[in-house]
Amino acid sequence: MTAVRTETKAEPAADTSFPPGFVWGAATAAYQVEGAAAEDGRTPSIWDTYSHTPGKVCNGDTGDIAADHYHRYRDDVALMKDLGLGAYRFSISWSRVQPTGRGPAVERGLDFYRRLTDELLEAGITPVATLYHWDLPQELEDAGGWPQRDTARRFADYAEIMGRALGDRVGLWTTLNEPWCSAFLGYGSGVHAPGRTDPVATLRAAHHLNLGHGLAVGALRTTLPASAQTSLTLNLHQVRPLTDSPEDAEAARRIDAVGNRIFTGPVLDGAYPEDLIADTAHLVDWAELVHDGDLEEISRPIDVLGVNYYAPTVVSAGDGTGTKNDGHGASEHSPWTGSDHVDFHLANDQLTAMNWAIDPSGLHTLLTGLAASHPQLPLMVTENGAAFDDYVSPEGRVNDPQRIAYLHAHLDAVRRAVADGADVRGYFLWSLLDNFEWSYGYSKRFGAVYVDYSTQRRIPKESAHWYAEVIRRNALPAAGQE
Ligand code: FCB
């Protein structure tokens, strides 16, 4: 009898690689890192005013100095090069280049961004510019801010200035970062600048942000070479009903409308959703707010949609007392205009230092959902990351295994989304550096690089070294190889 040869076939190693050409980056925003708040002609933005208002920001922190990126950008670019970053997503401080929000630009302000982008290009790093990461020139807020239609036109003029100044060196442009936060946290719950708490102003701001986006895409198109790409970055809420009751499904529908479709509707599909209009009809007259031609402007084609993801949004029907768990900061005023009775819950009890639940499946669901609803639209994860209570060890190292685990799990979710057909072109870690985390000030550290604010010394955390290795291999470490 011949012995039966049993073949122990090893399971093929799971593919952990990303598509060739996948863009690996890190992100920051002007007010969070630049500092130099009153240098070279810069005037206050709404975040300068807000952070200098007692009681608004944790520990009274401000962005006056921040990570001093304005003066240290050369060293920071060298750090990025060491990490092997392919791209750097930064934002432009509007009041640095156009101090009153109108009229001619200040050359000294533009020069900073010329120097920064030159330095990046020289280091072989692709600059990705965001025009608006929440820092409206204070003068424009004094004239009414985003609830005023004119602010959208001012934004388009500023976009044109920037397109002319940097169009020869920046190939990917983002108009707005997370307009949901600008409108709903800035004018609704008031936990962001300018700190207003007015539901009508909130919805008006949302429409004018959409309009500003569309007009800015148009303005950029008149100044940029045809090869340049335009985009918008949204913090899409991955909304989940707590139970499968019809009431919780209704809560999820409402939050999806006012959290997501208020932007994706007009921008990607050319119309505000009917259910959103119905939910908010007691607050605004949409027929009066939305002028003829607005939706055509807003739905101008974009080349890429940026997606920022941190945690899912779990909701139930309720009385609004659970709003405190929505992850957007405590306020007596709900940001969920027209749906402020909805309650919010944590998806699980594995939390970051922001008290945000760690749930990478939400990122996979978001990306594959967008791929299904808008199959022709390329996607980029423009922010993802986590704050933990980092500290420097006596040996001078910052050991952050929780951040490595977070990044690994979320990058794996991106990789799986790509395998499932989503056209995801890149990933930007939030953030390159520890920085001014809005109302939380410097108390929350999101950086891959630790910043000692007393000396401005930078120390790449263990996660930065881990990320550098992922970039080098264009792949995640296989199981057991970490
Ligand atoms: C996003 C912001 C970014 C940073 C992260 C943690 O909502 O775009 O500036 O604050 O959250």
Question: In what range is the share of β-strand residues?
Answer: 5-15%
Q: What is the CA-CA span between the terminal residues?
A: 47 Å
CATH T-level topology: TIM Barrel
Q: How many strand segments? A: 13
Strand order of the largest sheet: 1-2-3-4-5-7-10-11
List ligands, each type once.
Answer: beta-D-fucopyranose
What percent of residues adopt helix (DSSP H or I)?
A: 25-40%
The CATH architecture category equals Alpha-Beta Barrel
* Largest pleated sheet: 8 strands, parallel, barrel
**Arithmetic mean of pLDDT:** 96
Can you identify the CATH class?
A: Alpha Beta
Structural class: alpha/beta
Write down the overall geometry: globular
Low-confidence stretches: 1-8
- How many H/I helical runs? 16
What is the total number of structural domains?
1
Gyration radius over CA? 22 Å
Written as H for each helix and E for each strand, in order along the chain, the element string is EHHHEHHEHHEHHEEHHHHEEEHEHEEEH
CATH superfamily: Glycosidases
Description:
The chain is built from 16 helices and 13 strands. With 482 residues, it is of the alpha/beta class. The chain has a single domain, classed as Glycosidases (TIM Barrel, Alpha-Beta Barrel), CATH 3.20.20.80. The strands form three sheets. It has an eight-stranded parallel beta barrel with strand order 1-2-3-4-5-7-10-11, surrounded by five helices. The radius of gyration is 22 Å and the shape is globular. The site of beta-D-fucopyranose has 12 residues, from loops.
Keywords:
482 residues, alpha/beta, TIM Barrel, eight-stranded parallel barrel, three-stranded mixed beta sheet, 13% strand, disordered N terminus, binds beta-D-fucopyranose
